[in-house]
Amino acid sequence: MSKILIVDDDVTSTTLLEKILSAEGFETAAINVSSKAVQMANHVLPDLILLDIMMPDINGIDLCKMLMSFPNLQHIPVAIVSALNDTGSKRDAFNAGAKEFITKPVHVDEFINKIKKLISEAN
After folding, report:
1. CA separation, residue 73 to residues 40, 41, 101 (Å)
2. Looking at the domain 3-122, which fold is it?
3. What are 23-76's pLDDT values in tens digits?
4. In the beta sheet, which residues pair with residue 30?
5. Measured between alpha carbons, how far is 15 from 21 in angstroms, rounded to an integer?
6. Domain residue ranges of the chain, discontinuous segments joined by +
């Protein structure tokens, strides 16, 4: 069973993503405080990390860069899941090391297909 870490300051978004992923058989861990996400990622060692961009403390772009700086985490694919849909945000996400950019609100089938693809490509 693949483990997915969700990092989003919005509890409603986190809960929704957890329900969608759990229904598909994924194990999930979630954190709503971005400044604790690196510690959580090191503890959980997930197969995929989902990050929101707009978070207090550390935004998702900077957090992605931080995660990629750890040798034991840099192989884990990161997907940005954000309400932002502008070219600049997408460019920044990919430049930070993200493998995918998924726009909120998520379309469940498309979201799950992208998640499965990211995990299979990483293995």
Report:
1. 11, 8, 19
2. Rossmann fold (3.40.50)
3. 999 999 999 999 999 999 999 999 999 999 999 999 999 999 999 999 999 999
4. 6
5. 10
6. 3-122
User: Which residue has 């935004």 as its token pair?
Assistant: 59
**CA-CA distance, 56 to 103, in Å (whole number)?**
19
Query: Within its chain, how far is the Cα of 79 from the centroid?
Result: 4
Count of CB atoms within 10 A of residue 86's CB?
A: 9
Instruction: For the full predicted model, state whether its pTM sits above 0.85.
Output: yes
Q: Cα(115)–Cα(43) distance, rounded to whole angstroms? A: 21
Task: Yes or no: say if 8 and 52 are a contact pair by the CB < 8 Å rule.
Answer: yes
Residues 6+ apart with CB under 8 A from 114: 79, 100, 102
What does residue 102 show for φ and ψ, rounded to 5 degrees?
A: -115, 125
